[in-house]
Amino acid sequence: MKRREFLGYSALGALVLSTAGTMGYALSRQLPHSTPPVGLAPTPLGGEPLQPLPRIANLTETAGRFRSALTPAPHAVPLGDELEARLWLYNGKVAPLIEVREGDELNITLINELEQETTLHWHGVPVPQAQDGAPWDAVAPGESRQYRYTFPAGSAGLHWFHPHPHEGTARQVAHGLAGALLVRPPQDLLPLEVEEHLLVVSDLRLMANGEVAPHTAEDWMNGREGELLLVNGQREPRLDVAPGTTLRLRLINACAGRYLRLRLDQHELTLIGTDGGLIERPQPLEELLLTPGERADLLVRVSEQAEGRFQLASHPYERGWMGERPPHLEQVAPLLAIHTLNSGVHPAVALPERLGRVEPLGEPAVQRRVELTEVMPGHDDHGAGHGDPHAGHGAGHGAGHGDPHAAHGGGSGSGSHHGTHGPGAGHGAGQAGDARPEVDFLINGRAFAMDEILFEGRAGEVEEWEVFNNSHMDHPFHVHGTHFQVVASRDGDGEWREAPWLAWKDTVNLTPYQRLKLRMVFREPGDWLFHCHIIEHEELGMMATIRVS
After folding, report:
1. Is residue 298 domain-resident?
2. Within this chain, do residues 367 and 266 fall inside the same structural domain, yes or no?
3. Are 274 and 405 contained in the same domain?
């Protein structure tokens, strides 16, 4: 199989250069231009040893239970000798880690010490709807809220948590609020000789005084990509290993809008797991595209060369930029330097033939159509000529633009086309100095509204969603409350291609005018969000709700 085909099928991103369509061209010409703030903070030096993620302490000694508190609050964090970043962090820690096992009960109290409301969303974790941390469950400043649930069998994997308040997520993520959640299986299948490292990748844009810079219009249009790229809160940390060491690198892309096109100098990467845990068999990769919200579990056997220096870096990726493209996006961005010591060579590690089991979900009981578009007020082209007149209509529990009642799936709704995000509404909200453009990012022709239900479904039914990216730019698509399987893909006007192997995913990238068929089962009733995981696009409307009964 060709590498291009493998990446497209794998749902970890096809490394294709997307071209700006006519809609993107019109938007880039008509939206107000803004430049990054002047007086950005100096870039701290890298090269320090990689630090493990700081752990959130378990406050109980009872076996099978994890009890603690998470307190988001402002903190000053030294980044190098001359820079102190003023961030918002959980418990004063950059990218803290919660580690549990399948079957454990998690009991977390969120204590909000911010000056704005927040939530705690458990990204990728199969939680009951009341524990999901959705925008309608916001915790006001000075208040607290308890999250409590048990990790079921099959939930092992690397997940994460972040805020999800209505029209406040972008600002809070830009200030550093995010953490890792590692759920271990009853028994790990990988040999003990494998050296494991958790890597949380984030980015910041800091002004000279250490404050987080406000969003620009380009940030809102494209998703914010900060100039300062960090791994576990460090810039270009160093990992010293013996030659021939087998590394397990478990990554979270916790950036708001940055895509990570990962390569490791002179090494092949082996994919062993995705968002929902281990895949069935190792898959060799020359490079990996990791979009915002996604996780990847990688193996690499380090070179046997003594005193070698190898760089894990993110390479430029064209995802359909609107407006002037910042120069730093054209540069290779180093993440982690791997140094091999002058010591004995580690022998190769034998992996089991089968890592996990991903059973196909089978034929769907319900089929739906989901269309992602971006528009300017006064424009009706919703995708610049690539539209499917039937794309908005679900089969069975339909939704779309053709039927004025279908968009509510039979549920509640205001009937407003733009919900709270139409002209003169949500775009004016947010941080002082923000420059929210008059752009709508839509799902099935509608922008998100708190009181609208787009689809209605039933717990336990297999659903197949055909998701169509009817726009000129990439969008990472995330579903709450479940994992899905990508069963087929179609690029532009090409033919449908079945996936050569399956994985459990909760976030998947769609390139311009690409279609994906996703199969999923919602096990828990309630209202579940689905949205673009470029945080700014989500806040400008590319989010919707399915009600499961």
Report:
1. yes
2. no
3. no
DSSP for residue 341: -
Yes or no: say if 489 and 499 are a contact pair by the CB < 8 Å rule.
yes
Identify whether the C-beta of residue 225 lies closer than 8 Å to the C-beta of residue 203: yes
Structural domain boundaries enclosing 385: 3-30+359-548
Residue 368 belongs to a domain: yes
Tokens for 517?
Answer: 């068929």
By CB atoms closer than 10 A (0-12, 13-18, 19+), residue 405 is: exposed
Number of Cβ atoms within 10 Å of the Cβ of 335: 23
- What confidence score (pLDDT) does residue 121 get? 98
Beta strands at 238-241 and 288-290: parallel, antiparallel or unpaired: unpaired
Share of the chain above pLDDT 90, in %: 74
**What spatial distance separates the first Cα and last Cα of the chain, rounded to whole Å?**
41
For 20-39, how does the pLDDT look when each residue is reduced to its tens digit (9 = 90+)?
A: 333 333 333 344 444 444 56
Q: Determine the Cα–Cα distance for residues 89 and 12; give it in Å rounded to an integer.
A: 29
The residue with tokens 């169509």 is: 468
Interatomic CA distance for residues 314 and 382, integer angstroms = 32
DSSP string, 137-185: G-B-TT-EEEEEEE--TT--EEEEEE---TTTHHHHHHTT--EEEEEE-
pLDDT band at 63 (very low <50, low <70, confident <90, very high): very high
Beta strands in 265-360 (DSSP E): 269-274, 277-285, 288-290, 295-301, 309-315, 333-340
Q: Would you mind telling me the total number of residues written for the chain in this entry?
A: 549
Coil, helix or strand at residue 47 = coil
Q: Do residue 410 and residue 330 come from a single domain?
A: no
The strand order across the sheet containing 195-204 reads 228-231, 195-204, 246-253, 295-301, 269-274, 277-285
Report the C-alpha gap between 318 and 473 in whole angstroms: 9
Q: Considering only CA atoms, which of 229, 289, 224, 214 is closest in space to residue 257?
A: 224
The enclosing domain of 322 has a CATH number of: 2.60.40.420
Residues 310 and 409 grouped into a single domain? no
pTM of the model: 0.87
Same domain? 419 vs 451: yes
- Which among 543, 508, 517, 548 has a CA at the least distance from the CA of 529? 543
What's the DSSP call for residue 29? H
Nearest to 312 by CA among 98, 81, 508, 46: 46
CA neighbor of 219 nearest in space, from 364, 391, 386, 430? 430
CA distance 98 to 111: 17
Average pLDDT, the chain: 85
Verify that 490 and 533 share a domain, yes or no.
yes
5: helix, coil or strand? helix
Number of compact structural domains in the chain: 2
Give the Å distances, CA to CA, from 74 to 116, 119, 393, 476: 12, 16, 45, 29
